[in-house]
Write a structure and sequence with these properties.
The protein is α+β, with helices and mostly antiparallel strands. It contains nine helices and eight strands.
Length: 232
Amino acid sequence: MSRLVITREGLPQGIVALPVRTRLIGEGDDLLALAREATRGIAQHGDVLCIAETAVAIAQGRFIPAEYIRPSRLAFALSRRAGALATVAQPESMQLVIDDVGVPKVLCAVAAGAVGRLFGKPGLFYEILGEAIAAIDGYTGTLPPYERAIVLGPAHPDDVSAQLAEALHCHVAVIDANDLQKAHVLGASRGVNRATLQEAMRSNPHGNADQQTPLVILKWRGSGPNPLEEVA
């Protein structure tokens, strides 16, 4: 496996990121065994092991082949209105949102979004639907053989993080990050400073292409207290 220290622009000063390449993760994989082998000798106490949320969800079997989903006319209509980079730009993804929250709530979000744009407040559609959309990854950015699968959000990310942290003796977090300078901590073990972690992961050291680096280790190399950890 290859390991590369990243000090790219966007990382807070004093924090370095080490993306760790792994084999392709599949349904039913033991994430603990994979993480232990991949990070042996480099993950230490005080570090934060960041795991891509897509990798966790796939290991949990939380994905659906797109051909298994039959989008409605509403799903087709709304997906055409979504931005090209939105995960619900595919009608299959939009159909999952409709199935999750129901047609009335989706139509309410559509109406609110239209009114919001008139008054200079875009994004109300996504704000109202919240996790129903945030928990879905469209099939345009996933590696084969999952390039035609809709990946759902990982189940119990806090519990996953806590169990891995206890075994690996470092902090662990499940991260949703992309190349749009957005990062969200879906789950984390005790003691992680989530605000600092999200800022550090905005540059997306995981990569958003075929890097196959679902694990990133963040290390503090500055002076003073470790900002990746909460102040006791």
